[in-house]
Design brief:
Structural class: alpha+beta
Strand order of the largest sheet: 3-2-5-6
Number of strands: 7
Shape: elongated
Helix content: 40-55%
Order of helices and strands: HEEEEEEEHH
Strand content: 25-35%
CATH superfamily of the largest domain: Immunoglobulins
CATH architecture of the largest domain: Sandwich
Number of helices: 3
CATH topology of the largest domain: Immunoglobulin-like
């Protein structure tokens, strides 16, 4: 009996954490369960937890936490995640354009011309999407 009481006394208490996001109003899932919208205060039992914050138009951001400090604030920047996704898309499109351009320089055919045109269109579309996103932040 004494060991049970001692084990209970040594058990870590639940932690209260606040989940914030940029922009606010994002969905919060704690260990796969809907938990509300940011900003959101959660009570976490001791142990490891998975927190996913998502909002339409932005990529989901996941963070695994283990026994965070009580009264801590966890911030999820969906804007930066979306900007990074769009920048990576533009980078890939430019790399594809460079490959298509190199192929066209070696042998000009209708197929290489089509590939070059498609790659150019992908770069321009990625630039427009990134510019549109940046303008939406102002």
């Amino acid at each position: 009996m004494t060991s049970i009481v001692l084990m209970l006394a040594l058990a870590a208490p639940p932690r209260i954490v606040t989940i914030e996001s940029i922009p606010s109003g994002a969905d919060v899932k704690l260990d796969g369960e809907d938990s509300g919208l940011t900003p959101k205060e959660l009570t976490l039992e001791p142990g490891k937890h998975s927190i996913v914050v998502s909002m339409p138009g932005y990529p989901s951001v996941k963070q695994d936490v283990k026994d965070p400090k009580n009264k801590s604030v966890l911030k999820f920047d969906l804007v930066t995640a979306e900007r990074k996704r769009l920048e990576e898309r533009l980078k890939k499109a430019k790399a594809d354009l460079k490959k298509a351009d190199a192929a066209a320089a070696k042998s000009w055919t209708g197929e290489t011309e089509n590939a070059l045109n498609l790659a150019n269109e992908a770069v321009e579309e990625a630039k427009r999407d990134l510019a549109k996103f940046e303008a939406s932040l102002k």
